[in-house]
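Protocol step 4 of 6: structure prediction from sequence.
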Amino acid sequence: MRVDLFDFDLPPERIALRPVRPRDAARMLVAAGDAPLRDAHVRDLPALLRAGDVLVFNDTRVIPAQLEGTRGQARIGATLHKRLDLRRWQAFVRNAKRLKEGDEIAFPAGVTATAEARHEDGSITLAFHGEEPVEVLLERAGRMPLPPYIAGKRATDEADRSDYQTMFAARDGAVAAPTASLHFTPDLIAALDAAGIGRETLTLHVGAGTFLPVKAEDTAEHKMHAEWGRIDADTAQRLNAARAAGGRIIAAGTTALRLLESAATPDGTIAPFEGDTAIFITPGYRFRAIDGLMTNFHLPKSTLFMLVSALMGLERMQAVYAHAIGEGYRFYSYGDSSLLLP
């Protein structure tokens, strides 16, 4: 499909630079089938789902994966996006032309790394020196990797260390937050429990590739970056049992959705999964694992707007986004939410 079909005009003032407080006070636009759109709030979620439904969350934890350093007199910026092994990460590098294989980069707090292989996508492997885990080094030298549409408007600060982390964060490895889950609070989880709505977790370490624009003119020419994920056997079994009992599987975010669909067999059974996925969902895709999605509002011409258009239909999502823009909904990572029930 032509990528320009997924374009729309977004006023810059609709981009949220900070989250609302409390988190579950964010607005939520509900699109259920062909029914009229409904303006609600995230805290209304227990009344919008049914007993027996299951929300699936991503328990990845965002690491401070943005680094600023030097090679000689040249300033080098690096955003880690995929772990290769204990000491080596692929990174998107600013001023990458100033680096050659074997160069050493000095980051703050005594953290150093050597530039190794250059990859087809332009990223570079960085091998970190020393014995401490790379995550420990990043806590000293790195900062939270806010999306460029926020970081380009204000500096990252200490508040982002908690604001850009979900309450489910348990497993280090993401360089972008699974932002749909940023809206959840202990009070909301208690209300969901009381309403008989189940919850499960999986792990998908979100990479910086999620922020990259689609540069191709046709979706068939776009290549997704691979991300590592895991669904254990017990979780898969419980999800299949819930669905067999009539419950709906509602992905809390596109990252959870993409991993569930990667793990699904042709008959819709969710199988255990561990490994990389580069699934790219566009209109025409037949969903197998999920029955609904809670997600924030996404960039024009992004792979994520293509995904929600695949779920609901392009014309329906164009109407959803036109309503959201007209009614003042806040967009992107720190913005409001939508509940999409095809």
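Step 5 (inspection) to follow. The chain has two domains: 3-62+163-341, 66-142.
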